[in-house]
Amino acid sequence: ASPIGSIAPTTPTTTSLFLLVLLIPLFVFLSLSRSPSSGEEREEAPTVTLLIWTRPFGEDQRLPDCWELLRVPGCALTYDAGAYPRADAVLVHHREVAIGAADPPPEPRPAAQKWIWMSYESPAHTPELWRLEGLFNLTMSYRADSDIFLPYGYLVPRAGAGTDARALPLSSSSSSEPPRSLFVAWVVSNWSEEHARVSFYRQLSRYIRVDVFGRAGRPLPGGGGHVVRLLRRYRFYLALENSQHTDYVTEKLWNAVAAGAVPVVLGPPRANYERFLPRDAFIHVDDFPSARELARYLLLLRAQPARMRRHLAWRRGCGLRQPDFWAEHYCVACRAVRRTRGRTAEVRHLSRWFES
């Protein structure tokens, strides 16, 4: 029998307990991500100036109004390097400094100014960290032990005071939904024979058909922004990360969740994924001794809808939040600066921490 066969079905009660116990660290975002309501007024708060020193990947993005976006008051965001002498904090996206497209902010820094290091790539794709030792006061990333933690996605309850109106409601499959006529999909742009995910795909595709989209496969219908729409036609999605590191769970997983496809994951260990999702919400490649056994289990689920529903029943009562890159990140960082005003610490051993 498949190892996953021992997993008990998730009930609404166990899903609720999961949300209350395992997702407590993520509930901090509920207060940040409430949709604007007409009854609320902008809170009077001392203004914090946050200078965006490097635009992530060179994207020329309009800066948000943090009050309108997340109800974060008193934030002045700017790209203007001339604001450096008066900025309360400077946000540095790692990649541009690492590849030499930008220099770090100049020393000496203004008194009490905080420098924030930000990266959403895995350690395997975050080079030159050693060059930045001792420069920063705060870290921001997908890692739960960052000073400023904002993951690629997270679940929220859909009932009670904690409801997040900005969350996407998740429904379990039902007879009213159109049938999913297709089996397994994989969307991949960064193809490398050195990646474990490519090796895994080659093994799995010996036993079942996998439809591959992206630069390494068929063009995505409608372009790259229509991944979720594509996945609504599939039962399973290969959410395979380019490298395996702590908390590195990217939009690949959350796009599958949003589409109602069951994600088959390759990344950090199962226990790490279970910090973000109930255990039935995904299928981990490590649950099986071989790709052949995993293929057998997927075929079994396709043939037995009752067993398939077990992997979807947890969705009742849940919502999904996927933060907007990079607008929400700037506003969450600004709020963190306000909360730590008057306190300045130094990030020690940046590379040792992030690469662990």
UniProtKB/TrEMBL annotation:
<dbReference type="InterPro" id="IPR031481">
    <property type="entry name" value="Glyco_tran_10_N"/>
</dbReference>
<keyword id="KW-0333">Golgi apparatus</keyword>
<dbReference type="InterPro" id="IPR038577">
    <property type="entry name" value="GT10-like_C_sf"/>
</dbReference>
<dbReference type="GO" id="GO:0017083">
    <property type="term" value="F:4-galactosyl-N-acetylglucosaminide 3-alpha-L-fucosyltransferase activity"/>
</dbReference>
<keyword id="KW-0325">Glycoprotein</keyword>
<comment type="function">
    <text>Catalyzes alpha(1-&gt;3) linkage of fucosyl moiety transferred from GDP-beta-L-fucose to N-acetyl glucosamine (GlcNAc) within type 2 lactosamine (LacNAc, Gal-beta(1-&gt;4)GlcNAc) glycan attached to N- or O-linked glycoproteins. Robustly fucosylates nonsialylated distal LacNAc unit of the polylactosamine chain to form Lewis X antigen (CD15), a glycan determinant known to mediate important cellular functions in development and immunity.</text>
</comment>
<dbReference type="Pfam" id="PF17039">
    <property type="entry name" value="Glyco_tran_10_N"/>
</dbReference>
<keyword id="KW-1133">Transmembrane helix</keyword>
<protein>
    <recommendedName>
        <fullName>Fucosyltransferase</fullName>
        <ecNumber>2.4.1.-</ecNumber>
    </recommendedName>
</protein>
<keyword id="KW-0808">Transferase</keyword>
<feature type="domain" description="Fucosyltransferase C-terminal">
    <location>
        <begin position="181"/>
        <end position="353"/>
    </location>
</feature>
<feature type="domain" description="Fucosyltransferase N-terminal">
    <location>
        <begin position="47"/>
        <end position="153"/>
    </location>
</feature>
<keyword id="KW-0395">Inflammatory response</keyword>
<feature type="transmembrane region" description="Helical">
    <location>
        <begin position="15"/>
        <end position="32"/>
    </location>
</feature>
<keyword id="KW-0472">Membrane</keyword>
<keyword id="KW-0328">Glycosyltransferase</keyword>
<dbReference type="GO" id="GO:0000139">
    <property type="term" value="C:Golgi membrane"/>
</dbReference>
<dbReference type="InterPro" id="IPR001503">
    <property type="entry name" value="Glyco_trans_10"/>
</dbReference>
<dbReference type="InterPro" id="IPR055270">
    <property type="entry name" value="Glyco_tran_10_C"/>
</dbReference>
<dbReference type="GO" id="GO:0032580">
    <property type="term" value="C:Golgi cisterna membrane"/>
</dbReference>
<dbReference type="Pfam" id="PF00852">
    <property type="entry name" value="Glyco_transf_10"/>
</dbReference>
<keyword id="KW-0735">Signal-anchor</keyword>
<comment type="similarity">
    <text>Belongs to the glycosyltransferase 10 family.</text>
</comment>
<dbReference type="GO" id="GO:0006954">
    <property type="term" value="P:inflammatory response"/>
</dbReference>
<keyword id="KW-0812">Transmembrane</keyword>
<comment type="pathway">
    <text>Protein modification; protein glycosylation.</text>
</comment>
